[in-house]
Write a structure and sequence with these properties.
The protein is of the alpha/beta class. The protein contains twelve helices and eight strands. It has a six-stranded parallel beta sheet with strand order 3-2-1-6-7-8, with helices on both faces. The longest helix is centred in the C-terminal third of the chain and has 21 residues. The protein is globular and about 50 Å long. The two termini are 25 Å apart. The N terminus and C terminus are likely disordered.
């Protein structure tokens, strides 16, 4: 899908295409949040966290504040790794594409977990691959498969600490939304399984319930996320100064800067530095490390790199 290269959000602030992507995501999120959930709430999570880490500060969120809501980035904030890569593994298992694409997905996922940051080229490549793979398939088909993929690859990768923060907002009577560059259908499934309100995600164009292989606007990334949150807040009548946002990536600084309560969760080095300068709250739920040390993830990330590299090498040997 090389022709989609112009869709990349790099080197842009909030353009008209970002606004379009944000408004489309907000509209899709509100529509999906009004639909009945197809499945029950998932209660699983990644092991290895203490109760102390998972407990939010007692003075926030404010119970009964109906003008407040919470917005959570997904990849490496709520879930270990990137949702689109896990989704790609599930599609490969169902023979949607060939081994060479799986090797690329494995390498990108390993790099993402090791570095702890989003590489624009990797993310763009993954989105283009996903669009080419789903083109011609029905939206309902991918939604059904997405439920299965969540159980297979995502349920055990939820950070319990971040989930506890989201639950604190729900317990306070506030709505909680995922905000992610992942496809809105995938994000909606994850939100429902976690018992959240809904999800803002990248909207892929469909006609008569069939994917066309194009996006509405651009991927929901960087400034587009901020536009989506702004549009949803306006539609829901929220006061952004009373809202909270959570992310691991410096790419989400536009979104974090919109709200009165920004949190850096498992932050990359740039976000950690930016957050400390502004006295934002930080949380780090990655094992084997302290919040003050923000470089590469610990042994889990190294293991992921080794596993991803081994998978790619094995696939290469089989082909040759």
């Amino acid at each position: 899908m090389a022709a989609l290269g112009w869709l990349t959000p790099r080197r842009r602030s909030a353009t008209a295409r970002s606004v379009l992507a944000g408004e489309a995501a907000a509209e899709a999120a509100r529509k999906s949040s009004q639909e009945p959930a197809a499945t029950g709430t998932d209660t699983s999570g990644a092991p290895g966290e203490s109760a102390e880490e998972a407990t939010p500060e007692p003075e926030f969120p404010v119970a009964g504040d109906s003008l407040a809501a919470a917005f959570f980035d997904l990849d490496n904030t709520v879930m270990q790794g990137a949702a689109i890569f896990h989704f790609g593994r599930g599609l490969y298992k169902r023979k949607f594409f060939q081994r060479r694409e799986l090797a690329r997905f494995a390498w990108q996922q390993a790099w993402f977990r090791l570095a702890g940051v989003e590489d624009p080229d990797h993310m763009q490549d993954a989105r283009e691959s996903a669009l080419s793979i789903v083109k011609g398939h029905r939206v309902s088909e991918l939604m059904s498969i997405g439920e299965e993929i969540y159980d297979e690859y995502m349920a055990d990768r939820i950070w319990p600490g971040t989930r506890a923060l989201a639950q604190a907002h729900l317990d306070a009577g506030q709505k909680v939304w995922l905000v992610t560059a992942a496809p809105v259908e995938t994000a909606t499934i994850i939100a429902r399984r976690l018992g959240l309100t809904g999800a803002l995600g990248t909207v892929a164009e469909s006609m008569d319930g069939v994917y066309t292989g194009r996006l509405v606007g651009e991927p929901l990334h960087g400034p587009a996320k901020a536009e989506a949150v702004r549009a949803l807040a306006a539609a829901e009548g929220l006061d952004l100064t009373r809202c909270a946002a959570y992310s691991d990536s410096h790419n989400d600084i536009p979104m974090l800067s919109l709200v009165g309560h920004p949190y850096a969760i498992n932050p990359d080095a740039k976000l950690a530095r930016y957050a400390r300068e502004r006295e934002w709250r930080l949380r780090d739920y990655r094992t084997g490390r302290k919040a003050a040390k923000v470089g590469i993830p610990a042994a889990a990330g190294v293991g992921a790199l080794a596993g991803g590299t081994a998978a790619a090498v094995a696939l290469h040997r089989r082909r040759h």
